[in-house]
Amino acid sequence: MEAELKAMLSDLETLKRSLPDPSHHASIDKMQLRVEHLTNLAKSAPVQRSKVKDMSAEVVDSNPYSRLMALQRMGIVQNYERIREFSVAIVGIGGVGSVAAEMLTRCGIGRLLLYDYDKVELANMNRLFFRPEQVGMTKTDAAVQTLSDINPDVVLESYTLNITTVQGFETFVSSLKNKTFRPSKEGSGVDLVLSCVDNYEARMVVNQACNELNQTWMESGVSEDAVSGHIQLLIPGETACFACAPPLVVASGIDERTLKREGVCAASLPTTMGVVAGLLVQNTLKYLLKFGHVSPYLGYNALKDYFPTMEMKPNPQCSNVACVDRQREYLLVKPARDAAAKAKIEAEALSATEFPLHDDNEWNISVVDDSELDKTDVRSLDALPDGLVRELPNADEFQKLPVPLETANSIDDLDDLRRQLEALSAG
Ligand SMILES: [Zn+2]
């Protein structure tokens, strides 16, 4: 671009000299000025902002963190700047993972570890984040390119590998263990793992690594028909792991394993993926910065705008050995943890009675107690909340198929079946 403009300038100069009539010179001078202006514009193309040492709450247009630091002033977050201490690993940089990575980058997360082995394709352009000029690049390289431009303060580590291979799994686990970013951190080197993969096998691999490392993680998924999704928090030993219970999908979801076949094109929408990425990062921020309620399971059914929630206890007969080990450890420390939690609630209740927050309730707002969440035992098939179905039957009760309660449900099931058959025959 710059070279072209330079050549044009010299062409104009030659033209000017070749014209004997000085009355023509004025218009050529004008053109030369325009080309010089264009050259300056080309030179000032994207300039990366410099790194920011401390997050400031100062309200000026040039402060990239002023709106985030305002969360403290608004009383939502106690210490927002702590976000710079946290490391989050994102496995799968597709329709959900890339958007989650961008959100965390814009929030000023300390360090992001990105894992993917795929390349950017034009077929990905119905989703957010990747751009057409990045087609052919690895998703990890393209993500680093975009994210480092958006926020150079974030430490980015990218791993172009497949975690379901033996070598890939080893590198994955050792990268999670690496504590050079914050040597004083307890446990592994990351605070949270986000699973944004699109298949069952990769989820089982993330589950295995996290159970072995006693690493808290969040799982996310979008159904193959693009109109439902979910996020789930998994704390080894404390909540059901991915192997404890057959995977759950929201009612309209399709069993991904029946559709994962060569040539079958699954549907995807930037809307559903954006919503799920938003829910996932929202839960991540709440978990890391300790505000609000961290959802153990949150579903999203786009057709009905329905968001089911639930909790799942671990299965003592889980086939994953590391999961059973973590459950044993959790039960040992549970009495002390429960006592501490009870004391905290009592102390809070006491201070609340001493200092009522709002004496006058002019809007008549009443607070609904939602602490009594339905806790579901993974062993009881019938205990799922309305709107959730199992993707696969429970291992112990494989002959007992879910019975539709109403005619409406059976029509939904038939529609699902028809869609599955149409998707299969389309391929
Ligand atoms: Zn388990």
Structural summary, described in words:
Strand 4 (192-195), helix 7 and strand 5 (217-222) form a beta-alpha-beta unit. The protein has helices at residues 2-18, 25-43, 66-73, 97-106, 139-150, 166-177, 200-213, 256-259, 270-289, 321-354, 407-426; strands spanning 87-91, 111-116, 155-160, 192-195, 217-222, 228-234, 248-250, 297-301, 311-313, 375-377, 388-390. With 427 residues, it is an alpha/beta fold. It is 40% helix and 12% strand. 31% of the residues are buried. Mean pLDDT is 83; it is low at 249-254, 369-374 and 391-414. The strands form three sheets. Strands 3-2-1-4-5-6-8 form a seven-stranded mixed sheet, with helices on both faces. It contains eleven helices and eleven strands. The chain folds into two domains: 2-44, no CATH class; 66-333, 3-Layer(aba) Sandwich (Rossmann fold), CATH 3.40.50.720. It binds zinc ion. Residues 241, 243-244, 314-315, 318, 320, 323 line the site of zinc ion.
**N- and C-termini, Cα separation:** 45 Å
Number of helices: 11
- Secondary-structure-based class equals alpha/beta
CATH class identity of the largest domain: Alpha Beta
Written as H for each helix and E for each strand, in order along the chain, the element string is: HHHEHEHEHEHEEEHHEEHEEH
Give the low-confidence spans: 249-254, 369-374, 391-414
Bound molecules: zinc ion
The number of distinct structural domains comes to 2
- Overall outline: elongated
Q: Report the sheet with the most strands, covering strand number, pairing sense and barrel closure.
A: 7 strands, mixed
- The helicity comes to 25-40%
Tell me the number of strands. 11
CATH topology term of the largest domain: Rossmann fold
* Rg value: 27 Å
- Provide the residue-averaged pLDDT: 83
Percentage of residues in strands? 5-15%
CATH architecture of the largest domain: 3-Layer(aba) Sandwich
